[in-house]
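Hi all, a correction to my earlier message: I attached the wrong file for YchJ-like middle NTF2-like domain-containing protein. Here's the right sequence:
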Amino acid sequence: MKKKDSLCQCGSKLLSAKCCLPFIREEANPPTPEALMRSRYTAYALQEEAYLLNTWAENNRPTPPLLEQQEETLKWINLKIIRSSATTDAGIVEFVATYKVNGKAYKLHEVSNFQKVNGQWYYTDGTVAE
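and the right structure:
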C-alpha cells in the first residue's frame, strides 16, 4: 500500500508532493519569492541542508555545516506569511515562524530579501523584526 502524502509543513494546506517537496528534490524551481520562502521553511523543518545552501545567494551563503548548530530539540511548528511582493528580479517576504525548543514556543519574525538570477530565486538576507 502506498503511503498517503501529508500536508506540506509550510502551511499552504496543499499536499507536500504538490507544494514544497518538488523544489526540495530539485524537480522544479520555486516560481516566486514566497514559494521559495515556504520551501526553505519546509527544508529547515526537514533538515534539508543542501537545499537551504543551494537556494542561498552565493555572496551571502554561509559555510556548511548549517544545521549542525540547530538544536536537536528544535521543532518548527508554524509559518505565517505576513506579506509578499516581487518585481521581475527582486522580492521580499515578511513572515513569522513559530518553533519550539525543549517544549517552549518561540517566534521568528523576519523580512527576507530575495533575488532572481538566471531565472532562479535565491534568498539573499533578512532582517529580524522586533
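Sorry for the mix-up. The chain has a mean pLDDT of 91.
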